[in-house]
Each structure stands twice: as structure tokens, then as C-alpha cells.
Write a structure and sequence with these properties.
Number of helices: 12
CATH topology of the largest domain: Quinone Oxidoreductase, Chain A, domain 1
Order of helices and strands: EEEHEEEHEEHEHHEHEHEHEHEHEHEHE
CATH architecture of the largest domain: Alpha-Beta Complex
Number of domains: 2
CATH superfamily of the largest domain: Medium-chain alcohol dehydrogenases, catalytic domain
Radius of gyration: 20 Å
Strand content: 25-35%
Structural class: alpha/beta
CATH class of the largest domain: Alpha Beta
Length: 344
């Protein structure tokens, strides 16, 4: 079979690799669609992946083979596959912190979603595969995982009916957080970004207010104050890996409000990061980190996508065969896109 194999940031090849063999309790999935996530891009660009590895984790496909003992799947089933599963027994799982579970942190699809076939381990087969109804396409199914991550963030923030939410970041994760916030009862959702193309898509999926914050007027601060009776947002979700966005969130959250760090800051230089700690302390502001999602969050996300509470079809703007990965990257960095799908 073929797969996108990472050797270096400038050397990613679509080439022949050995087709996975499965064992008892496992499944072989023929990949039909894989989402290009910023996490995969940064792993490659910042050389966080081992040479010879295959990236990709947002995936859907068709069951091609099942190992002995597998009762929940049949050959031909259309499925969405979440690439992780918590153990349910450790300290972290018992305290609702599943993404910190040691089993969860092990990748459990091989070699990676950017390939023609993936081998799925027993814990994933048992807990993290969802059969797809006809109304959910394979492309739509790749969006369940990032939606699940947004579900967890919104739950951690305790967003409730009547809350006024600001999302900073107009990429796919920004739009998903905005939609999940709205679905959770937020009365007003504001989304800020720098790209008119993306902000137009945000309007199409139901975001109440969008603002290009690179323009001077009206300013984001003026807009937020006007829409929150001068108080500031109840919750600010920072869905972009920008230290300036974090400082901006501190200026725009209300007293007693919450800020959620959702962007992937692992590769962001932070030599001069300074936060107004007095503001956090004296104004009783909560700073929350959110990463990943549990299998339950994934199921909730599936139902949101299925019901149309979260609109993902409108977010898919570009499609590329895997052999044109370089072109997909060029489109990704142009920002004149929303979600990019790769097909074998």
C-alpha cells in the first residue's frame, strides 16, 4: 500500500510501505478520508516526528478486515475512527481527565491516517469506533475528532445558557469551538480573526458576530464591550497558538470570567511572555488549558455533527489526493482555506 512518509520537514514522500497485518481483537480500516490538522503540520515543520513515521489522526474509512474475537464490526462497515482510548481505570480517568491517561497518550492507529490502510488496536476497536449513518460522509466524519476536542474545552469552561463567548482564531478549531459554544446555550458568540475568507465561512455556520481584528475600526475591544454591556466576555477561548492572543484574552474577559487555552503552544517561542498576573488574581479570572478529548466527548461530537448542531460540511473547502501533499500544505499556509481533506 502507499502512505505519506515523513523523513524531514522538506522531505515527505507518498510511497510504498508494508500493509499492516492485524491480530486478535484488531481491525484493518481502508482509509477513505483524512483531515489535515495543524497538529500534523507542526509536527512535520518543527521536526517533532521520527523519520519514517506516517502522520495523520483525523480519519474515516471502511472496515476491510477484522481479527478474531471482534464482534462489534463487520467487513464493509463505514466508520469514523478516534485514534485514542483511555483505560477508564487510572487516577486521571476516574477524575475526568482522560487525556492525561497513559494509555490514552499512546497512538493506537498504525501507521497513521495519511495512508491507504490503518491497523486499529483492540482498545480502539472496543471503545473508539463509530459506525456511520448514510447522512454522514467520510469527509464529514473526519471532523468528529476536532469537534470532540471542542466539546471538551466547552465543558471545561462550563459554558451555559446565556453566556457570552469570544473565540479568538478563525481556523477550523476556532469555528468548531464557536459552534459547540452556541450549541451549549451561549447567547452571544463572537469570533475574531485576520482572514475575511474564513470569517465569511464562520457566518455561514452560525457564528453571531465576526470581526477582522487586523482592522482598526471597530476594534475588537469596542465590539466585545458593546455586546457584553461593558463587562467583557464570560468566556474567551484562545483557539490560536499566539501569545499576543492570550494577552488580548486577558483584556477582553470579564471580572470572574474564564480563559481557555486551546491553541497548540508547544512550538511557539515564549521568551518574553508576560501576563497580567494582578488581573488574574484580583479580578478572579480562571485560566484553563484544554487538550484532546475523551471517547465520550467523541460520541457527543458525533451526535452534534449528525444532528446538524455543528455544521462541518460547510467548513470543508479543499480536497487533495495524498500524492499532492505539498500542494495541500501550500493551500494550508495561504489561509485561503478552512478544512483540507486528503484522500488516498
Amino acid at each position: 500500500m502507499k502512505a505519506l512518509v515523513y523523513y524531514d520537514a522538506e522531505d515527505i514522500r507518498y510511497e510504498e510501505v508494508e500493509k499492516p497485518k492485524i491480530g486478535a481483537g484488531e481491525a484493518l480500516i481502508e482509509v477513505k478520508a483524512a483531515g489535515l490538522c495543524s497538529t500534523d503540520v507542526w509536527k512535520a515543520i518543527y521536526r517533532r516526528s521520527k523519520p519514517g513515521s506516517v502522520l495523520g489522526h483525523e480519519v474515516s474509512g471502511v472496515v476491510a478486515e477484522v481479527g478474531s474475537g471482534v464482534k462489534s464490526l463487520e467487513v464493509g462497515d463505514r466508520v469514523a475512527v478516534y485514534h485514542r482510548a483511555e483505560c477508564g481505570l487510572c487516577y486521571y480517568c476516574k477524575h475526568g481527565q482522560e487525556p492525561l491517561c497513559r494509555q490514552y497518550r499512546r497512538q493506537s492507529i498504525f501507521p497513521g491516517a495519511f495512508s491507504e490502510y490503518i491497523r486499529v488496536l483492540p482498545e480502539i476497536v472496543e471503545n473508539s469506533i463509530i459506525k456511520l449513518p448514510k447522512e454522514i460522509t467520510h469527509e464529514m466524519a473526519t471532523m468528529i475528532e476536532p469537534t470532540g476536542c471542542s466539546v471538551r474545552a466547552v465543558l471545561k469552561c462550563g459554558i451555559k445558557p446565556g453566556d457570552r463567548v469570544l473565540v479568538i482564531g478563525d481556523g477550523p478549531l476556532g469555528l468548531l469551538n464557536a459552534q459547540v459554544s452556541k450549541a451549549s446555550g451561549a447567547s452571544t458568540v463572537i469570533l475574531s480573526g485576520h482572514h475575511d475568507y474564513r470569517l465569511e465561512i464562520a457566518k455561514k455556520v452560525g457564528v453571531d458576530y465576526t470581526l477582522n481584528s487586523s482592522r482598526e475600526s471597530p476594534s475588537l475591544e469596542e465590539t466585545v464591550k458593546d455586546l457584553t454591556d461593558g463587562l467583557g466576555a464570560d468566556v474567551v477561548i484562545v483557539a490560536v497558538a499566539s501569545t499576543e492572543a492570550v494577552r488580548e484574552a486577558l483584556r477582553l474577559v470579564r471580572e470572574g470570567g474564564k480563559i481557555c487555552l486551546f491553541g497548540d503552544f508547544r512550538d511557539v517561542p515564549q521568551p518574553n511572555l508576560s501576563l497580567d498576573l494582578k488581573r488574574i488574581l484580583r479580578d478572579d479570572v480562571q485560566l484553563i488549558g484544554s487538550w484532546g478529548c475523551s471517547t465520550e466527548n467523541y460520541r457527543v461530537a458525533f451526535n452534534m455533527v449528525k444532528s446538524g448542531l455543528v455544521k462541518v460540511k460547510e467548513m470543508i473547502t479543499h480536497r487533495y489526493p495524498m500524492e499532492k501533499f505539498k500542494e495541500a500544505l501550500q493551500t494550508f499556509f495561504s489561509k485561503e482555506c478552512m478544512k483540507i481533506i486528503l484522500n488516498p
